[in-house]
Amino acid sequence: MNKKIWTILKYLIFLSLGLFLLWYTVKDFDEKKWNQLIFDLSHANYWLLIPVFFIMVMSHFLRAIRWKQLIQPLGYNPSLLNCFLCVFIGYWANLAVPRLGEVLKCTFLGRYEKIPVDKLIGTIVVERAIDVITLLILFAITIGIQIDVLGNYTIDLFHRAFQNHSGQFSIVRLSVVIVIAIAIFFCMRYILKRYTHLPIIQKIKKILRGIVDGVLAVKQLKHKWWFVLYTIGIWLMYLLSIKLGFLSITETSYLNYAVALSVLVFGAVGMIVPSPGGVGSYQFAVQQILLLYAITEEKGMSVGMLLWFSLTLILILFGTLSFFLLPIVNKKRMTSK
């Protein structure tokens, strides 16, 4: 299949998934609920989006600093401004095609800083691993401090993911998932060893070696505690932006940081679902979590829409700006080379 057609097809599939989840969150809304949703969105305090803008820009700036810190052990010292602009370009691209941004931001930074893209991809692997670990830690903290609210809900989610036709938890299904993952790993390992003489396999192995180099570079990381602080700062920015989102609607303004933490971790899972920009999946996750705190479906949907809208608007504006600024700020450097 033509690569361009396959890319378009994947985009349509993921967009359809997101739109389905968006539809699923509002499918049972009657006229009264629709009117309430429209009222909430039209009467929200949009002035609070201004500090949210600055907070989210700061979170991306911290990501740029952290990314530069990961690149330095590889023997390169990229411009912080380039890292910052490429981070925004990456998230901007993810709005269109999920996971495209990771490759695109490495491609752009590699081009302007003369860094091998495969090594940069290795740093992205480290970044994503750190984010997953951080999310798991926050997940454990969130459930630990709100076990009465989230305990049964979390168990039910895990149960539903691996239940059989009769509604019972299926050890067989869980085992099948684990066996398939192991089988894929060993099949890939066999192919890479057996057909190492093929040009495409050699290219894949070169990319993998570059990724491994990027991952191993974390051992040589200087100022590790600064790296930890940057990571904490990124997630604190996310938490604060959600709390401001609560304040934008009167009926949710009383919700505390513990609830914001719940929205943060479960909403992050919604963003991981490969729909463009988390459309549908994020709103659904926010709505379902806020139901546990006696927030109605339409209010939960309103909060989810506002949070998603503010983040998406920031990424579109700054991502587009970064796309045009990057060649301008590097024009002199590229000309001299």
Walk me through what this model shows:
The chain is mainly α and 337 residues long. The protein is built from 14 helices and no strands. α2 crosses α13. The two termini are 39 Å apart. The mean pLDDT is 78.
List the helices and strands and how they pair.
Layout: H1 3-26, H2 31-43, H3 49-71, H4 80-96, H5 100-113, H6 117-145, H7 147-161, H8 171-194, H9 199-216, H10 224-247, H11 257-272, H12 281-291, H13 297-329, H14 331-336
Helix pairs in contact: 1-12, 2-13, 3-4, 3-10, 4-5, 4-13, 5-6, 6-7, 6-9, 6-11, 10-11, 11-12, 12-13
Tally of individual helices: 14
Order of helices and strands: HHHHHHHHHHHHHH
Query: How much β-strand is present in the residues?
Result: under 5%
- What is the terminal-to-terminal distance? 39 Å
Note poorly predicted spans.
none
The largest pleated sheet is described as: none
| Helicity, as a percent range | over 70%
- Mean pLDDT level: 78
- Structural class computed from helices and strand pairing: mainly alpha
Total strand segments: 0
Our Rg estimate from Cα atoms comes to: 22 Å
Tell me the overall shape.
globular
